[in-house]
Amino acid sequence: MASVETAAEHERILREIESTDTNCIGPTLRSVYDGREHGLFMEKLDVRIRNHDREIEKMCNHHFQGFVDSITELLKVRGEAQKLKSQVTETNRHLQEGGKELMSSMEELQQCRVQQRNIATTIDKLTHCLPVLEMYSRLQEQMSAKRIMMRIHRYYPALRTLEQLEHTCLPRAGQYRFCSIMAENIPKLRTQIRDTAMTQLRDFLESIRKHSDKIGETAIKQIRDGKIWQRLAH
């Protein structure tokens, strides 16, 4: 009867050891060693340990192939991951190089656009400046030495050109240095045209006064000869 109770007690203690935290089994083990049957308990403990070892071995054998397959699959995945990493690295390198080329192309494009805007602005400015230069060149030609000996009425085109230059062409051209110089010279040019015209007018009147007697004599002679009447008749 005592051996049955002892066996039951040992079984309870073993279950308690298996299910209890190891920090709390001190009192349980002490009760075993305080009793007289601790040798029998050790035998049962060894049997229980061997049983657990067999269960562990059985479980390991059962899952070993799966473990091996998992390791094999993991190695394959590792190889694929390494390949993928290499591909990603290579792709990143190509992207970096392509990005540098793209940035360089964008900078060149931006410079070209700036140059295009500058050219367009220059063309627009020249479009307004060319009429000024053409008009000023025409004015200089009209006032050249070759034209100084012309009659007084030929100075009207020069005055009209000067008027267009002052009130039409120069305001459209904008604020440029040469425009300012032209605008400053306009009063001088107008005075020069006026003085030249007046000088030629005085010279013309003086010439008429000097040759008035000869002109009258020639006219009387033609009247006597009947040439004037003949011209009037025709």
UniProtKB/TrEMBL annotation:
Instruction: Tell me which InterPro entries the record gives.
Output: EXOC6/Sec15, EXOC6_Sec15_N
| Domain of life (superkingdom) | Eukaryota
The biological process GO terms on file are: Golgi to plasma membrane transport; intracellular protein transport; vesicle tethering involved in exocytosis
One Gene Ontology cellular component term attached to this UniProt record is:
membrane
Locate the Exocyst complex component EXOC6/Sec15 N-terminal domain: which residues? Answer: 44-220
What name is this protein filed under?
Exocyst complex component 6B-like
From which source organism is this entry?
Cottoperca gobio (Frogmouth)
